[in-house]
Amino acid sequence: MALLPSKGVVISMPALVLSVAGAAIFLFFLLSSLSSSPPTCTCPTTASSTTSTGGSAADSNNVRFGDRISTSAEDIEWVKSQIEANGLHMQQNVLRKGINPRTRQQQLQDLLQFKGISHYEGEEANNHTALPCPGELLVEEHHSNYGEPWAGGRDVFEFLAESAHLTPNSKVLEIGCGTLRVGLHFIRYLNPDHFHCLERDELSLMAALRYELPSQGLLYKRPLIVKGEDMNFSKFGDGPMYSLIYASAVFLHMPDKLVWIGLEKLASRLKPLEGRIFVSHNIKFCSRLGGEECTKRLNHLGLEYLGKHTHDSLLFNHYEIWFEFRRFKA
User: Fold this and answer.
1) Model pLDDT for residues 218-235, shown as the tens digit of each residue
2) What pTM, to 2 d.p., does this model score?
3) Is residue 126 classed as helix, strand or coil in its secondary structure?
4) What keywords does the record list, in alphabetical order (predicted)?
């Protein structure tokens, strides 16, 4: 018998040994059970929340601030809820009460006559503005030079960027970028030096370089914008291989012969298979030849026609038509 002095309790040695052994066996089975249980699954399950982009909530955040370009249904519902929450309603389009409400024409007249509320006089007038801009550009008259609202430029960007599966490292060439109605969005999205443009109109180039790029804080993106005519791409060098080349409402104003000359020059600058050429509105330069002859000429250049697309505007009742081509051989 083993006598344990604690509180006068007497425990036999065999009982003590059995208790310790039982505890050890229980612990052994417990540890074995834990070590053999399957690892926690990190895969998506049916219980995971999904969004309109087709992924989980976490994936949605990654897409939202990373790869996604176009506006989602969730975004539209959010802004509608904000309008409703604030009790906002469209009012008649008249000048509102304000500090100095003006039309663009009145703004321009004020700039020419009064030079702004606070301004420098005499010699000092030329010492404080790093990049003086003409009044016509400051009141954004060039935003009205298009046949549709300026906001439509974002629609074109979203459609083309997603159709061509662009990344910020892609290189893009626009033929006739004008005042950068579309180009601004590409410049903002792409890495520096990755947006190129050929434009013939000097006034448009002035608006792009003297107003749009500085006012949007995009000078550091260093887009290559070249004044040129007759589809002359020599100033872009021999190096660039483009993921996207597009012409919005340009080819329909050019002689068919010049369009084909341009396509011949551009085909070798387009990435094989993955690169895309998009032409808006119509391709009469092709259809006037007839389907068989057009296909033959395209194939001779290493190009093929992929199809016709339409896309809707986010902000106004409008859709655009685009025709897609790719380079099928190196």
Assistant:
1) 999 999 999 988 888 888
2) 0.75
3) helix
4) Methyltransferase, Transferase
